[in-house]
Design brief:
Strand order of the largest sheet: 7-4-3-12-11-10-9-8
CATH superfamily: Aldolase class I
CATH architecture: Alpha-Beta Barrel
CATH class: Alpha Beta
Number of helices: 12
Radius of gyration: 20 Å
Strand content: 15-25%
CATH topology: TIM Barrel
Helix content: 25-40%
């Protein structure tokens, strides 16, 4: 199976899992909080952090932006969406911090202008969110930048995934299996889709988890997810739509520890007697 290089990491079957902490919009429009999340993710040992970038007036209709919706930013959906969005100065601060900490960052870009905006920061890849999987113009524009693409496949049929893969091609493509509910129920995670997608497309396939807990995310890695993505928050009780489906820093750190332990324990499948077993063998075997 082919591999994909994301920054200085090769991602693919049998290689160390590429662990991504998604900050997304859990910064609640506060760049100081975003910096704390970056630092927490770096301390937890993840391989990259991810944000979300939208041109609000392009992604959402005028009618949607005018809908009543109470938030710390105002009384409409538009107030909320604009309040959560970072601009150039905030991303310059975050870029400088990530470079200082030695942690790569990238973003889910929800429209073409956002792709152009993020591209200026030389990200190691682009992420296409599940909500954008059917947006052919966005897929084509992201692909035109010549960077690897990570495509989430939540709320999508196999036929829709097929079309998106046809649009993007399989070169430098990573698929992420996910269930787009926040939080997702264990009986709707359907983790066995991961090997099915890998067999079907011969590309690296990972997992983006929105469930409560870590066990099923570890299970995804065990059955072959080459990259794992979980939302990170400082406190799951904080205000924000994604907080309840997120993992606090100590949880992200445990997840990284569990995945690295699995990678050590996995072995190569060759049955052998270890030197450490020899004294036990001599002590316990009669013949």
């Amino acid at each position: 199976m082919r591999t994909v290089r994301i920054g200085d990491r090769e991602v693919g079957a049998g290689l160390p899992v590429f662990v991504v902490a998604e900050i997304g919009i859990n910064h609640n429009g506060d760049v100081a909080l975003a910096k704390k999340l970056v630092a927490a993710a770096a301390s937890a040992g993840v391989d990259a952090v991810k944000f979300q970038k939208r041109t609000v007036d392009v992604v959402y209709s005028t009618e949607e932006l005018a809908r009543p919706r109470e938030s710390p930013f105002g009384a409409t959906t538009g107030d909320l969406k604009h309040g959560l969005e970072f601009g150039e100065s905030e991303y310059e601060e975050l870029d400088a911090l990530c470079r200082n900490l030695g942690i790569p960052w990238f973003a889910s870009c929800w429209d073409e202008d956002s792709v152009d905006f993020i591209d200026r920061f030389d990200p190691p890849c682009f992420k296409i969110a599940s909500a954008s999987l059917t947006d052919d113009a966005l897929l084509e524009h992201a692909r035109s930048k010549g960077r690897p693409i990570i495509l989430s496949t939540g709320m999508s049929s196999l036929e829709q995934i097929e079309h998106a893969v046809d649009m993007l091609g399989t070169e430098d493509l990573v698929l992420l299996h996910t269930t787009s509910t926040y939080p997702a129920k264990d009986d709707e995670l359907n983790l066995m889709v991961i090997p099915r997608l890998a067999d079907r497309y011969d590309v690296p396939v990972g997992y983006s988890g929105h469930e409560v807990g870590l066990a099923t995310t570890l299970a995804a890695a065990v059955i072959g997810a080459c990259t794992v993505e979980r939302h990170i928050t400082l406190n799951r009780a904080m205000w924000g739509s994604d907080q309840a489906a997120s993992v606090e820093p100590h949880g992200i750190a445990r997840l990284v520890t569990y995945i690295r332990a699995w990678e050590l324990a996995r072995g190569d499948g060759e049955k052998r007697v270890y030197e450490s077993e020899l004294p036990v063998m001599e002590k316990l075997r009669r013949v």
